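Hi Q.,

Before the meeting this afternoon, I wanted you to have the pyridoxal-5'-phosphate prediction in hand. No need to reply - just skim if you have a minute. The sequence and ligand are here:
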Amino acid sequence: MSMDFLPFTRPSIDEATIASVAEVLRSGWITSGPKVQAFEAALSDHCVGRPVRAFNSGTATLEVALRLAGVGAGDTVITTPLTWVATANVILEVGAMPILVDVDPLTRNIDLDRLEAAIAPTTKAIIPVDLAGLPVDRDRLYEIADRRNLRVIEDAAQALGASWKGQAIGSAFGAGRGFVSFSFHANKNLTTSEGGALVLPADIDVPLCERLRLQGVKRFPDGGMDVDVLGGKFNLTDIAAAIGLGQLPHLDAFTRRRRELARAYFAAIDSRLGLQLPPADFSNCNWHMFQPLLPRGTDRGRFIAAMKERGIGVGVHYPALHLFSLYHSLGFRDGDFPNAEDIGRRTVTLPLFPAMQDSDVERVCAALDEALQTSLRCPP
Ligand SMILES: *Cc1c(COP(=O)(O)O)cnc(C)c1O
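Predicted structure with the ligand bound:
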């Protein structure tokens, strides 16, 4: 077949954005400058006026948020085992230890009932993750955090454009007390190629946030400077910010199109195939990814290869992170979080991105049928 390969995701970058990047390159100022400030202001508008600072990755925003929340050696932070490993790595990076809590098998997000039981005297913060852009229940989350006096750092890397009860993720929830982290990695719903943004609880957090972002440097009007805290090197470039500024006006249309495509998948996937579909949420979820679970007894490697032979890219997001060697060496074991392990072994990410055509959904579904047939393991 001579059909083009359909990747599981692809960014939509228009010609005006490409022109604005060229303009930055010609301007003589290519690192952090006016485009970053304009991007931060535009993001702050999206977050109904909350303070926002741009970073060179989502990972950096999480690390800085932990430092701003005062998390360090001897502390524990509760999070989910079913996420991109960055979520847990940053906890180790600041010298703290992750406490993992298994996921709800339906939403695939951290199980808030189990979360409450896992809180220890050392627990300082919670990092909930909105996997695939399906938001964790913000009402219950903040109710628990407030009652138990814990800081919240929302890992909303995948949730820009998603909402909870009609309010955008990054806006109302946690104002005054929570942090919200976004990633603009190439695969996310809005990209700067690489980048991230941190929504802060309040204006008072801005100066330290800026110092932690760039070497701890505090500048004085007379040209002098001081360094009073150990900061990193996490600033975004104007080149990247120009991409983000070009993307942001399309965010609502991107989210609408993603929801349409997700609906088309629900309509087209034959229930007889035995795939377990995600919750059919078309109001909160931004459909960052469309992830069925393969029937038990399917060889995922063979399934992915069979889809590839048919010109279709399939991703895996993610194996449960406590199974990685680093986390094993910290004492986590196979069997600790059965729901996350089961989902992590069976999940596949099908193509879904704003520029996809309706006919692409049909193509994926036709291939699904054949690929599942060829990847069933022989019965023992
Ligand atoms: C992408 C992602 C991150 C990290 O973002 P980067 O910009 O790649 O550093 C963290 N958490 C989750 C859930 C992600 O999807």
